[in-house]
């Protein structure tokens, strides 16, 4: 397929992935020294580990010899002290840079230059207690990303107080627009602690472009959602979306903050991991054991709706998007197309979102 056709397909809604981007993988505390863990990101098997030096690294989790997952082996150290991963099948060893360090079956008179054999290395970074992996469009990319991973306001009070995740059996695009959809809550999340489809009202929100995405300007709480009641005071909320799949609510309540961050990581064309992380220095977090089940159920309500939606999507219907309720979904499609085009054309990303006011009922 020609390169331009490949780029066009990657930019279509419900198809392809965004490359040359940082994807959230795990909390730093989940990546243990000496442990090998396999992740799937954009259809690629990725091994992530932490060496004895404390540094996290990521390489492709397939041995080029006989395709055994390297994560089934063990972490070792070479003579120079650098970490290497030993394949469980024949003991081939690969350094954290992906370069083959040893092939035990070779004899002294065999001249194969083992350092010419390598597995793909993925740039990896730790930021704010999270691990991010950079997935380049070019599988031979061996440099460093042009920018660090995103940072988020409100990462306070140590590590996240509430952590939850689940896999939605859907393409990344459907997961993203479902996440930012402002009008489904009264129906999908109807409960005594949320909102009711019988108590809808008109909402007016101001939006503006932000780095690689857009932001809903800071505003007062929704009276329909009773979960805000537990924070007391007069919460002020700012909601931001950023490519490839980050959405966060930064809530200010007097001197206290709450950050509710959702990270979407595409596993395959039909599976997306949704990770929800909540930080806060608010006193209410003393009762997080009571709050966590509500957050967990909220996410699973969305998951059940995704499964129901899949029953219709399998017929590949044309989807109707309306203003203003679906404008954020339209922006996402525009952002995705511009992201893909700017990289294909080798030019800076130009945010297509303009400041505007949107109205809807929910």
Automatic annotation (TrEMBL):
Source organism of the structure: Caulobacter vibrioides OR37
Cited Gene3D superfamilies: Naphthalene 1,2-dioxygenase Alpha Subunit, Chain A, domain 1, Rieske [2Fe-2S] iron-sulphur domain
PROSITE patterns for the chain: RIESKE (PS51296)
Pfam families per record: Rieske, VanA_C
UniProt keyword annotations, A-Z: 2Fe-2S, Dioxygenase, Iron, Iron-sulfur, Metal-binding, Oxidoreductase
Annotated protein name in UniProt: Ring-hydroxylating dioxygenase, large terminal subunit
Molecular function GO labels: 2 iron, 2 sulfur cluster binding; dioxygenase activity; metal ion binding
Entry-linked InterPro entries: Cholesterol_7-desaturase, Rieske_2Fe-2S, Rieske_2Fe-2S_sf, VanA_C_cat
Rieske domain residues: 22-133
